Write the structure tokens for this entry.
Amino acid sequence: MDKSKMLMLLNETYGIDLSDEDALYLEGIQIKLNKNSDLKKFMASATAREKMKFKFDRAVDDLLLDFLGTKLDLYIKLTEPKVNMIFKSRWFEKCRRQIAFA
């Protein structure tokens, strides 16, 4: 899911009012996830979807923690439970498909 679709989904569904600047930060998270070789190796070798999802969610959470000092408002928006669940799930499925077809 590209950043504009993710932004629209979260804004329309949860009314969290993510800005274009926030979208750039979201894109940065995706880039870092895509470059995370440990995560890719784990997801390529893991057989249980739940284990893959847990590892992926932890990687996203670690990246979100980086926002505490710089983008607290975005951190608060993205850690709201329903928002957090939907964007992690969408990104996880995208990442899983990319690894499966790599």
The chain has a mean pLDDT of 88.
